[in-house]
Write a structure and sequence with these properties.
Elements (H helix, E strand, L loop, with lengths): L1 H11 L3 H18 L7 E8 L6 H20 L7 E8 L4 H13 L4 E4 L3 H14 L3 E3 L14 E3 L4 H14 L4 E7 L2 H13 L6 E8 L7 H5 L9 E5 L4 H11 L6 E2 L7 H7 L7 E4 L15 H15 L5 H20 L4 H9 L4 E2 L4 E2 L15 E6 L2 E4 L6
Parallel strand pairs: 1-2, 1-3, 3-4, 4-5, 6-7, 6-8, 8-9
Antiparallel strand pairs: 10-13, 11-12, 13-14
Helix pairs in contact: 1-2, 3-12, 4-5, 6-7, 9-10, 12-13
């Protein structure tokens, strides 16, 4: 090869770029003849909100994906191929999420994990559908998967499920007249809509509503208005980010004594840290991951959530959260589907995702179908209460 290079350079005056290409081709041929095939890598894209108002969701999601890809590769990859993770930070901006999704699809990723929020996911959906790229969302809004779209799946429980779980607990406690305090972001709006729709079936009356914006630092006027509502029995907050923590601190500061419920959008130690002692007594629906060590030995999720909780904290130094679990489930669902599909063809991968049955993840046991691209039932939610900064399973709400 060295001799060929010199002859071409001196006698044929071939451009140096071509010389480098010839040399590279020769090295590749030599490697193949020696039996050392080049390493292949299947690209998996991720569009996450690593900065911005939803960073407390996106940071653990990114950490979980990086940890899991490294683990899969260390075990030999998938179908003989290693995985290459390409992560983009949308900063919580739906327009940025859409651009990044388009870029990833054009780069030939086998699937995209994301977005972190309902708003960013909804912006990415048209890209997934038009480019025929499987999209596995980590967002909560039910509108991500309803109506069912061919190329879109998700791992997070839906806001409708959260409303139903909360209302079942309210009914069990004999509480029927509630106020809803919702965020003006896409998730807050969606959960508010789903709660209003679900309330009559549980005998719940939504007697009053208030709203807060993602940038609001004072919600005193909204919460003071609750005192004027007659016979109010409980308050449900629909939102994520710092807003629900501000609501919770103000709620306690105003000495409102009504039971307070939050959504699974606050199911992390970050919320507990932001809300401080005011978080104690708050109830919320969440996955089994937060109470991994408290699950009975016969629970099918226990081995999965215990292993993930220990591994994640040890590998990342971060407290385990349901959001890290959503990302873990998304990646492992793609890996599981790729194994069953026998490769990384997008169409075959999509079909295998839709045919997932009995997959035990951190969010629950997943069984999908052409009419269900989530695959979780209400039993995947556990009703928890925050006590002294920790998570406690509410009695009688284990499944």
């Amino acid at each position: 090869m060295i001799l060929l290079h010199r002859l071409l350079a001196r006698r044929l005056l071939v451009p140096r770029v071509l010389l480098r290409r010839v040399a590279a081709a020769g090295l590749l041929a030599a490697a193949l003849l020696a039996g050392a095939a080049p390493a292949l890598a299947a690209k998996i894209g991720a569009v996450l909100s690593i900065t911005g108002p939803s960073e407390y969701l996106g940071v653990p999601e990114k950490a979980a994906l990086e940890m899991d890809v490294a683990a899969v590769n260390a075990a030999g990859g998938v179908n003989g191929e290693k995985l290459e993770l390409i992560v983009h930070d949308d900063g919580g901006d739906p327009n940025a999420a859409k651009v990044f999704a388009r870029t990833l699809a054009e780069e030939g990723v086998i699937a995209i994990v994301g977005g972190t929020t309902t708003g960013t996911t909804l912006a990415m959906i048209p890209v997934a559908e038009s480019t025929h790229t499987p999209l596995v969302s980590l967002a909560g809004g039910v509108e991500v998967i309803e109506p069912v779209r061919k190329w879109v799946f998700k791992t997070a429980h839906t806001d409708r499920m959260a409303c139903e779980r909360i209302f079942a607990d309210l009914k069990r406690r004999g509480l029927a007249r509630i106020a809803i305090v919702s965020g003006t972001d896409a998730f807050g709006r969606s959960m508010r809509t789903q709660c209003v729709k679900a309330a009559p079936a549980f005998g719940i009356t939504v007697a009053h509503e208030e709203r807060f914006g993602p940038a609001d630092t004072d919600v005193t006027p909204q919460l003071r208005a609750l005192a004027a509502v007659p016979d109010l029995q409980a308050v449900v907050v629909a939102g994520h980010g710092q807003g629900p923590a501000i609501v919770t601190r103000t709620y306690r500061h105003l000495d409102i004594r009504l039971p307070l419920y939050q959504s699974y959008g606050v199911a992390s130690k970050t919320f507990v840290a932001l809300a401080g002692g005011a978080a104690d007594g708050v109830r919320l629906p969440a996955s089994a991951l937060l109470i991994a060590d408290k699950l009975p030995d016969g629970d099918p999720q226990k081995p999965v959530v215990v292993r993930f909780a220990k591994t994640f904290s040890a590998a990342t130094g971060l407290p385990v959260s349901t959001f890290a679990g959503h990302a873990h489930d998304a990646l492992m669902l793609v890996v599981d589907a790729a194994k069953r599909a026998g490769g990384f063809d997008r169409t075959k991968l999509r079909d295998a995702l839709e045919a997932t049955k009995g997959f035990v993840g951190t969010g629950g046991v997943v069984t999908m179908s052409p009419t269900d691209h989530l695959g979780l039932d209400l039993g995947a939610f556990r009703m928890l209460e925050i006590d002294n900064g920790g998570w406690v399973l509410v009695s009688g709400q284990g499944s």
